[in-house]
Design brief:
alpha+beta; Elongation Factor Tu (Ef-tu), domain 3; six-stranded antiparallel β-barrel; four-stranded antiparallel sheet; about 30% helix
Length: about 425
């Protein structure tokens, strides 16, 4: 036996070494398997990074108006109820005439009178026809007075008289003309006649121009009287200032109301908006047209979409924090979304496609550097990295010995024992 061992010592040594190595590797694999089983891992992949800004806000209508009574009185008729859609200018309720102040009652008569005056100005042709005749006659009178005064300026005037000539047994009248000097009294009288004829002609011309041009100033004045009377009458009623839905209604027929009492609330729900406050740190990344995702605690399981429609150019400071108001319009709101609801808003400020992404939870800060731990042959390997843009859950890898397909540890412990391990810390900024 000793001779066999002596002759085969080398072979036996190699056999023992092989067995020892086999046992070592099996134990190492088991240890590595036990260590690897402690880790949560993920495979690094390419994808799309969506950077968002989160905020909360309250849903509001595009327009809202609280309507009040302008005069005291007794409610006569109420034409609407909560939930009714009304057009702009619709009379929602009004007061009885007998309960109104005298000034409002008389405004109805003023309105009728003003409308008649305006109608006459716009539609009556009698005055225009008479103006044409008056202007023509004034023109003739002026021309006659002007020619007479001009003839007197020649100092001599033509005088005509009828004389009779004897023709046979009869005297026949004939016209004889001769020149004579005009005295000062005649000239003065001619000038006065001319001045009067010119004044009448100018008056006739103005009246003609006024009527033929539509009498703009009188039309404006008549319309102003109509508007004033109508405004006074409107004090006895409540009308919708824009098209919308009645969301609150208070008056009932027979109620006694006072001026200033609330009558209705109306909302234009054709567009729903959400106003949110964005920090001054993020406001320069927000622009009009960016897509938005909205969720509501009151509407579980539904996501809604919108877009940024307004970005404030000035901020407001509250307790030293400066925020800017950003307005978001809901694009697919349904009947479940109502004004006053609280919305969680995520504004997409950047979207990068086909980039290498790693989960933020895998990133640690070690010696002032950002690092991740890759799982290589069952062992964690610390790797320095440099990050680009980030979202709430993912970040872009700009540099580092990390590539698509690597297995990354999501929950590395604070310190790894042995080779490849090292101190770790919380996720740094």
């Amino acid at each position: 036996m000793s001779k066999f061992i002596k002759n085969n010592r080398v072979v036996l040594i190699l056999l023992v070494v092989a067995v020892a190595l086999f046992v070592f590797f099996r134990v190492s694999q088991a240890n590595n398997a036990d260590l690897a089983s402690q880790f949560q891992t993920d495979v690094i992949e390419r994808g799309t990074l969506t950077a968002t800004i989160g905020a909360t806000g309250t849903v509001r209508a595009q327009q809202t108006a609280v309507l009040i009574w302008q005069a005291a009185g007794t409610v006569d008729v109420v034409n609407v109820k909560v939930g009714d859609n009304v057009p702009a200018g619709f009379v929602m309720a009004y007061l009885t005439k007998t309960s109104l102040p005298q000034s409002i009652i008389l405004a109805e008569a003023d309105l009728a009178s003003a409308k008649m005056s305006l109608d006459a100005l716009l539609n009556s042709d009698t005055a225009r026809a008479q103006a044409v005749i008056t202007l023509r006659e004034a023109q003739k009178a002026y021309d006659k007075a002007y020619n007479w005064r001009r003839e007197l300026d020649n100092d001599r005037i033509t005088v005509q008289e009828i004389i009779y000539k004897q023709v046979g047994a009869y005297k026949v009248p004939s016209l004889k003309e001769y020149k004579t000097w005009a005295d000062d009294a005649t000239k003065q009288k001619a000038q006065e006649d001319l001045d009067l004829a010119e004044a009448k002609f100018n008056d006739a011309q103005r009246e003609f121009d006024r009527l033929t041009s539509g009498n703009a100033e009188e039309i404006v004045a008549a319309q102003a009287r109509i508007d004033a009377a109508q405004a006074t009458l409107n004090l006895a009623r409540v009308s919708s200032p824009f098209a919308g839905i009645v969301t609150e209604s208070y008056p009932m027929p027979g109620d006694q109301v006072s001026a200033g009492a609330t009558a209705f609330r109306i909302d234009d729900l054709s567009k729903l908006l959400v106003d949110v406050d964005v920090s001054e740190v993020d406001i320069n990344t927000v622009t009009i047209g960016q897509p938005v995702t909205l969720t509501f605690d009151a509407i579980l399981g539904n996501d809604y979409h919108g877009e940024v429609v307004e970005v404030a150019q000035t901020g407001s400071s509250v307790q030293g924090v400066v925020n800017f108001k950003v307005t978001v319009e809901l694009l697919d709101a349904d009947a479940s979304v109502k004004p006053g609801m609280t919305a969680a808003v995520n504004i997409t400020v950047k979207e990068l496609n086909d980039v290498v992404l790693i989960p933020n939870r895998a990133v640690r800060l070690s010696d002032g550097n950002r690092v991740v731990y890759l799982l290589v042959d069952g062992q964690p390997v610390k790797t320095n990295i440099r990050l680009g843009s980030s979202s709430e859950s993912m970040s872009i890898i700009l540099s580092g010995d990390v590539k698509e397909g690597d297995v990354i540890i999501l929950n590395p412990p604070a310190e790894f024992p042995g080779p490849g391990g090292g101190p770790g810390g919380g996720f740094g900024g």
